[in-house]
Design goal:
Length: about 210
């Protein structure tokens, strides 16, 4: 018989008042079992007109301040975030039959934070950040490859490639975090944490 927590949920939900602590534990398990990119998430943004857009990005950091990813600020997602900072994230781990949904607002990370992460990237990735006009129309693949070669000539020293001003990170500060576990016959288990007016988290069970 499966063990349950005090809310009657599977023991994997534990009995924690802090959703970041539960996220950390689930994420740690995903990193052990998910074959590819356990830090991959679907990022949902919307334009000022409310037209939604979803794409996969990689989580690069998280703490009690939020969840961080990086991008070209002039990309479609970058443009949408400037117009509308409300966003959502969804992690789906098939190996664990779990997902986590996060809703909140986005804010650009400090320049030093972006610099520090940028400098950990591979040389080719740092050059790519300069060469790619992300989301803009590309006349030919050759055009992009030529830009890559041009920036390699400009920044020959692999240790001295500055971060482009159009490239940085965003931090999603959550207002709610929902944990989901697959259940038999579509009777899933769902636990949602919501940030209240006292800046503390409340927990609620949700119907599947």
């Amino acid at each position: 018989m499966n063990q349950k927590n005090s809310l009657g949920l599977n023991k994997c939900f534990l009995d924690l008042d802090d959703p970041f602590e539960l996220f950390d534990k689930w994420f740690s398990e995903a990193k052990k079992k998910e074959i590819n990119d356990p830090n991959a998430l679907a990022l949902g943004t919307a334009s000022k007109l409310g037209i939604p857009s979803v794409r996969m990005v990689l989580l690069k950091d998280f703490n009690r301040s939020g969840f961080v990813f990086y991008t070209n600020l002039s990309s479609q997602k970058g443009d949408e975030i400037k117009e509308n900072p409300n966003a959502s994230m969804c992690f789906h781990w098939k190996s664990l039959l779990r997902q986590i949904r996060i809703v909140g607002t986005l804010k650009k990370v400090e320049d030093k934070v972006a610099d520090d992460y940028y400098n950990t990237r591979a040389y080719e990735s740092r050059i790519g950040a300069w060469a790619s006009k992300q989301s803009r129309i590309l006349k030919s693949r050759e055009e992009l490859l030529n830009e890559i070669e041009n920036f390699k000539k400009k920044y020959k020293d692999e240790n001295k490639v500055p971060r482009p001003g159009h490239w940085s990170g965003f931090n999603l500060k959550p207002s709610s975090i929902e944990f989901w576990l697959d259940g038999d016959n579509r009777i899933h288990e769902r636990l949602k944490y919501t940030l209240n007016n006292e800046n503390t988290w409340t927990k609620n069970l949700l119907n599947p």
